[in-house]
Amino acid sequence: MNRAGFLLARTLRREAPLAALSVPQAELLAALAGRHVALVGNARALGEARHGARIDAADLVIRINRAPMPGAQSHGTRTDWLGLATSLPPADRARLGPGRILWMSPKRKRLDWQTARGPGFYLHPLPDIAALGAQLGAPPTTGAMLIDLCLRAPLASLTLYGFDFFASLSLSGRRAAADVPHDFGAEAAWVQELLARDPRLVWQR
């Protein structure tokens, strides 16, 4: 598909041509097999911690959206994969240098050509987003979708950093919980349930 075809498919919300640009989900999950994965959220509280070395020691580091990184001591430095649901300015793309971008948003009109043609590009399926939203009773955050996705893989462990479900707000903006369409209480309870039944999941606070 060329750029004009991509723009047409995006504008007309033609899912099949856009999905054809994506690696299959099975291939993405296979890439996580046996690996220790760090999933780094954007909670402001992470800036007060010293988890950077642990994050960088993971086999794979996944960050979220524009992934502000105030310091290496708290956040580490690596970004192997980036779970994205918003536009990514060129400066942030260059700063993060992700090896793979996972487009997690159902809003396909925000997806840009550079991202869609990037190496290993992955488009998260709309039915998966809808299913998690139904379970949570609200549109899922990018972080929740990434947790759900990663735990489908035969990975060794998934450690969450920078997740406090908006208790300390987000480094990526000034909005309060009431200003976004997510149910952070439901997501926190869901993660607690996952922790109780899946020993691979670790919540580092």
From TrEMBL:
One GO MF term attached to the UniProt entry: sialyltransferase activity
Source species, domain of life: Bacteria
Keywords tagged on the record: Glycoprotein, Glycosyltransferase, Membrane, Transferase, Transmembrane, Transmembrane helix
GO cellular component, one term: endomembrane system
Lipid bilayer topology: Single-pass membrane protein
Subcellular location: Endomembrane system; Membrane
Major localization listed first in the record, in broad terms: membrane
Gene3D superfamilies: Glycosyl transferase family 29
Database matches in InterPro entries: Glyco_trans_29, GT29-like_sf
Protein name as it appears in the record: Glycosyltransferase family 29 (Sialyltransferase)
The species this protein was found in: Paracoccus tibetensis
